[in-house]
Design brief:
This protein is of the alpha/beta class and 409 residues long. The chain is built from 18 helices and 13 strands. It has an eight-stranded mixed beta sheet, with helices on both faces. The longest helix has 20 residues. The radius of gyration is 22 Å and the shape is globular. The two termini are 36 Å apart.
Length: 409
């Protein structure tokens, strides 16, 4: 229950399943990060017809800062702050510095004084907005944000950040790493892809891609504050498909060596340098795996048509749904036997799961085994196999979903 409480603390109520996708028209995407009591007073007419796609997030800075999908669909943040609070000012400065290369921050505060305004303007914010604000004041803050955003992009900073897809198996040996490595190779044909093997004790991503890395995720963990784009590039290995891989450690590594803060930093750096970041997660729930899922646009939960596979999948879905993450879950049923007319019968599994099975993968042990032994794609082993067709369907549909969500990759 303690883990559930910590997971719940990471989820704000502003990012729901029915949150509209980012505009395709190039509108400025603005997120108002407010305290719940302030959000309740916002007049929707203040936000209409402002030449921007404006949403309200009532979870505060702590929850917004770990909400990866919402961060990646935000061009400008208007953040409520208590200027007399040293702790809040420090949190504001840290956040503004961490996202400042791509997202301008406007500070908003109640009862603004000249002293408070000067204090805020000495920080890294683009502008200061009073609460409550008029339409004219909001329009001015948006214009300042647009100007700052234009300066950032003209200066060569990343205009958008890449997307994150997490993979987690409900049982060991269920095909999670196979799915992650094969999708990485498919997507690498069109995108700049990074696969990070976070299964510290049983990770096989590098082996499945026939790579012999000199360094691993352990070196990034040890780097701590020195973790940046250059250090990331030093650790990764390049596969023949074009996909980059950061391997798990070669020796047994304690799971608690990873922290939520490390995951936050790692994904910030990775998404600024790659179109698509894939996370091969261990099949456990810890604070740092929860952070990884929270930062991901979606998670592929891999299971199979067995009693234990369905039961464990249901348990994982229950945890995700209890913590507001259910809309990010995509269930993949592996090792299926096609029925009449080549179709998969998923009705019984969906009834037991009380959830949709989004994707099915054919059972083709010889092709999969050969591909993993040789570090190649399934298509290179056996052209037009059923499992390769299934994988390409997954790759295409997930890509379409990312676009519809306002993805930047």
């Amino acid at each position: 229950m303690a883990l559930l409480a910590r997971l719940g603390s990471m989820v704000g109520r502003g990012e729901k399943e029915d949150t509209p996708p980012a505009s395709d028209s190039g509108e400025l995407r603005v997120t108002l990060v407010l305290a719940p009591e302030t959000a309740a007073t916002i007049d929707p007419s203040h936000l209409a017809n402002m030449g921007a796609d404006i949403r309200v997030f009532d979870g505060g800075l702590e929850k917004f800062s770990v909400n990866g999908p919402l961060l990646r669909r935000t061009d400008l943040v208007i953040l409520e702050i208590e200027p007399d609070s040293a702790a809040e000012l420090e949190a504001l400065e840290q956040f503004a510095n961490s996202v400042g290369a791509r997202i301008p921050v406007v500070a908003a505060a109640h009862d603004l004084t000249i002293t408070a305004t000067r204090r805020l303007m000495r920080s890294s914010v683009a502008d200061v907005l009073p609460i409550p604000f008029s339409r004219e004041e909001l329009a001015q803050a948006l214009e300042t944000g647009r100007d700052r955003l234009g300066q950032l992009r003209t200066g060569g900073g990343p205009a958008r950040s890449g997307n994150v897809i997490a993979f987690q198996g409900v049982l060991g040996g269920i095909g999670t790493t196979m799915l992650a490595t094969q999708l990485a190779q498919i997507w690498a044909a069109e995108k700049k892809v990074l696969l990070i093997d976070l299964d510290l004790q049983r990770g096989n991503a590098a082996m499945y891609m026939n790579l012999k890395p000199r360094l691993s995720i352990a070196d990034l963990i040890e780097a701590d504050d020195r973790l940046d784009a250059e250090f990331l590039k030093m650790v990764l290995e390049r596969h023949q498909s074009g996909a980059s891989v950061i391997s798990s450690p070669t020796d047994m590594t304690a799971m608690d060596l990873v922290t939520p803060e490390f995951i936050d930093r790692l994904l910030d750096v990775a998404t600024q340098n790659f179109d698509l970041v894939l996370l091969d997660l261990p099949g456990i729930w810890m604070d740092w795996t929860a952070m990884a899922i929270q930062k991901a646009d979606m998670m592929l939960l891999v299971t199979q048509m067995t009693v234990s596979g369905v039961q464990q999948a249901r348990r994982q879905l229950d945890v995700a749904e209890a913590n507001g993450l259910g809309d990010r879950m995509r269930v993949v049923m592996n090792r299926l036997i096609p029925g009449l007319f080549g179709k998969y019968d998923l009705s019984e599994a969906e009834s037991a799961l009380r959830s949709r099975v989004h994707y099915g993968l054919a059972n083709d042990f010889p092709t999969v085994s050969a591909a993993q032994d040789e570090g190649r794609s399934l298509g290179q082993i056996k052209m037009k196999s059923r499992i390769e067709k299934d994988l390409r369907i997954i790759a295409a549909q997930l890509g379409d979903e990312l676009v519809s969500m306002g993805a930047t990759a």
